[in-house]
Amino acid sequence: MYYDLVKSNFTIIKDPTVFEDLFTQRSYKILDDPAVFVKEGSHIVVVENEAEKENSAGYTFTINTTIVTNKDGIAGIIIYCEDKGKSEKVQKDPSNRKSSLEENLAVIGELAASAVHEIKNPLFSIRGFLQIIDNTFAEDDKRKEYVRIMISEIDRLEGLVRDFLMLARTRPDSKEQVAVCELIREVAELYKSSFEKKKVKFRLQAQDESVSVCGNWEQLEQVFINLIQNALEAMEEGGSLDIVVSKTEEKVIIEVRDNGKGISPDAEKKIFSPFFTTKKNGTGLGLFLSKKIIEDHNGKIYFSSAEGKGTAFFLEFPIQGTPVDV
Amino acid sequence: MDRKNKILVVEDQVWVRRMLLEALQGEGYEVYGASSGPEALLVAEEKKPDIAVIDMTIPGMDGLTLISKLREINLNIRSILISGNSEKKYIERALEEGAYAYLVKPFDISSLQNLIKHALAS
């Protein structure tokens, strides 16, 4: 991630060797010679977080400096700081470890939560006006096709925004006992017409109908929406989708099995990575988000797949909030 | 001749309001817009709409309060809430408090048009 020290996230305060991260309000002191800022090129500097002075070996930043000139001479200096995270010594101490991915996600999350409603409204008005335009063209008009592409792209953007909002909320703030079968049935109800359209047989089997896990309803619902949607898209007409809920003394296991096209060995390694998708209209955040939600519930998710035969996803959740051994 | 059904759209986002008004006008309804709760009440007093399409977060009062105040003006008015918030608890509460339906933004315009047809027929 790049930060523009001069213009955006960071601000230099008083002392030119100290700057502050506007997101986290943390201030950093540059331990190297601050003159690196005006030397064009890329330089690695070690900075110290003011608040963590005593146990910190410092953060490493790569500073990229570009000097902008015009006919009168130097017009300005653009400085980008690439956060390399804490230096080795600190990262090895597990009590002090916080991955930079996690920190980045927290920042993205905060931003997403506040921006999401602001983004939804313009998307909504654009989509609506496009629909109004769509109605004015004849069925064979090329422009009708363009409008429909635009609408489907708006839907994709909307999906991205929605997934980002979910990411922002993945830390379950309100946990309750969630009745797994009830939740799955509710999600399946949303897909009822899609199942019928594609002649997909949906079955839910449960050893114990009343089984519940401790968690957040909306987030777990999102996980099943993602899994069912993926399964549905992977299947031809007439496929079958089975969800089996079972329980041991320590955990609840949910299997979501389809007989669709399966996952290619190449894709298998990447399916939980952000922005990886094999769909034309996918956001590439669905499974990434699902995994994050499940891990935030102290659970785990894994899968087995055979190309051309189908895929089964397995979810495990601890009973009574005890972590599942990973 | 039958009078045209009247629809009030309460939405503070100017282009969203305009879009909804145009989409509904295109369906042959008589449409009125308002950008806040108090403005919506003034319009409702004067025009007596059959249906109100209300954004959940409007200036002046929240969508739920507006629903109950609109009912004081016309007991038979049907209110359709629209909101970017898709949380289940939120939606359930809205329906309990007397909303006829709840649509999560962004929705397909035809969903709103169909809902309104249903609401007017019932």
Keywords, please?
heterodimer; A: 326 residues; alpha+beta; Helix Hairpins; Heat Shock Protein 90; 7-stranded antiparallel beta sheet; 5-stranded mixed beta sheet; 8 helices; 14 strands; 36% helix; globular; disordered N terminus; B: 122 residues; alpha/beta; Rossmann fold; 5-stranded parallel beta sheet; two-stranded antiparallel ribbon; 5 helices; 46% helix
Could you explain how this protein is built, in words?
The complex is a heterodimer of chains A (326) and B (122). Chain A is α+β, with helices and mostly antiparallel strands. Chain A is built from eight helices and 14 strands. Chain A has three domains: 2-90, no CATH class; 102-168, Helix Hairpins (Orthogonal Bundle); 176-321, Heat Shock Protein 90. In chain A, 36% of the residues lie in helices and 29% in strands. In chain A, strands 1-7-6-5-4-3-2 form a seven-stranded antiparallel beta sheet. In chain A, a hairpin with a 3-residue loop joins strand 11 (240-247) and strand 12. The longest helix of chain A is centred in the middle third of the chain and has 35 residues, at 100-134. The radius of gyration of chain A is 25 Å and the shape is globular. The model of chain A is unreliable at 1-14 and 87-97 (pLDDT under 50). The longest helix of chain B has 13 residues, at 109-121. A five-stranded parallel beta sheet of chain B has the order 2-1-3-6-7, with helices on both faces. Chain B is of the alpha/beta class. In chain B, 46% of the residues lie in helices and 24% in strands. Chains A and B meet through helix 2, helix 3 and helix 6 of A and helix 1 of B.
